[in-house]
Fold this sequence. Notes:
Layout: E1 2-6, H1 18-32, E2 36-42, H2 47-51, E3 54-64, E4 67-76, E5 84-89, H3 105-121, E6 129-133, H4 139-146, E7 158-162, E8 191-192, E9 195-196, H5 198-205, E10 208-211, H6 214-222, H7 228-233, E11 238-240, H8 267-282, E12 290-297, H9 306-316, E13 322-329, H10 331-344, E14 348-352, H11 356-365, E15 368-371, H12 381-387, E16 391-395, H13 398-403, E17 415-417, H14 422-437, H15 444-452, H16 459-472
Parallel strand pairs: 1-2, 1-6, 2-5, 6-7, 7-10, 10-11, 12-13, 12-15, 13-14, 15-16, 16-17
Antiparallel strand pairs: 3-4, 4-5, 8-9
Helix pairs in contact: 1-16, 3-4, 4-5, 8-11, 9-10, 9-14
Amino acid sequence: xxxxxxxxxxxxVAKVGGLGDVVGALPKYQxxxxxxxxxxxxxxKTRFWENHEFEIVHQAxxxxxxxxxxxxxxxxxxxTLGFDLYxxxxxxxxxxxxxxxxxxxxxxxxxxQVAVLDWVNDWRHTPDVIxxxxxxxxxxxxxxxHGYKYERLRSVPSVITIHNxxxxxxxxxxxxxxxxxxxxxxxxLLDWAGAINPLAAGIKCAWRVTTVSPSYLEELFNSAAGxxxxxxxxxxxxxxxxxxxxxxxxxxxxxxxxxxxYNARTLAAGKEANKQALCREFGLDPSLPLISFIGRxxxxxxxxxxxxxxxxxxxxxxxxxxxxxxxxxEPHVEWSLQQTRQYVxxxxxxxIGYNEALSHRIxxxxxxxxxxxRVEPCGLNQLYxxxxxxxxxxxxxxxxRDTVTDIGDKNGFGIRxxxxxxxxxxxxxxxxxxxxxxxxxxxxxxxxxxxxxxxHSWDSAAQEYLNVYNSMIP
Length: 474
Ligand code: ADP
Ligand code: GLC
């Protein structure tokens, strides 16, 4: 079976969050399961592109309204990632340093989708499945079905995975002229709430829709940033498949980014060595429990609650806990975390920015990982934490609910709370500190060892995606 994934991110080439991790790992596991897998992402100016060998496999031009752009499709020559990687290079649009956040993101991702379709349209054969990810690729299923140019692709099955329905990529109908011409009788499929909505169009037109956890799919029926009725209407073709992790990249036994490697057997010494190094790096006290947060500093992740949570916990548990935050995002959250640091003193430190290697050191060196997410379609941080023997403290929502069992329950290995509110998060932190201090009652060591051995690799999820593909192929 030949599958083409189309995405805005793919680790290690370009990653902003979990989408990159998923599109870097799932295709690799699918290839191991016997599929012929291709991944197409925009050709941003990345170090990966500079440091690896690529060849041009296709060159053409496309129109975005009245504007003409030349594009090249570059293929990575050595199958370094375990699948065929293609970069869609559109000078003047996609040759940016970053992934998102440009004034012309609508044009950038529209051109990306058109270039991918024009290229596939030109193949001698057609792929068995086109698998789109999030709104940046949501117009592809519509254009395959109703774009005049793409007649050849009508019968190719398409899947869209919703990683995050909060972002839908809407733009006004006044920019319809940017799209390649399509059957105007079908224009309503592009519309949601009076705008062209790529995510909604993807949900309407893809043959199958997947979400990144079963609980998230259930939540979307009631809370989907305006798309609730659409998801309910399309429920027959929706399925929730829990993300896995790349257990080669995230392996404390072999991770080159952490100071001391360890496994479930050598956990106590390994964790201690990593914690000592991390605390030294950030001026924290290694004799106290270390609770960390890693992620985008946005409301969705509950990051705006952190300053008050940290301030209140340090006040209520003086000299009994340390906090460390790694992230970047909304300026007011960054600012208030920095202010908090000024007044709470030595038991809290913060790194504002994106730092892949530091994230590995934090998963390895922390005792607990806090995720007070308001919305969490799957969440990968808690899975990485589990693999590194770090106990997750999570709000019981979406994928967090599907992957973390509370220590109060049978075989529990995490701490769950219900409300994205300071009092409830502080209560969960209180439970974590007691667990750390009272190690005789339920041994932290036992919980950690147990969680390190849980299997969250992609093997079974990759198979579930294959089942979805097979269900579409006659
Ligand atoms: P989301 O995709 O919503 O941001 P996920 O939990 O699925 O959330 O994935 C987040 C990914 O991004 C994880 O691999 C996490 O380690 C990484 N990450 C987030 N923020 C940072 C940061 N500031 N530095 C390094 N890695 C980060
Ligand atoms: C999104 C979600 C996150 C999920 C990731 C990968 O960014 O916010 O919860 O883990 O996609 O699917």
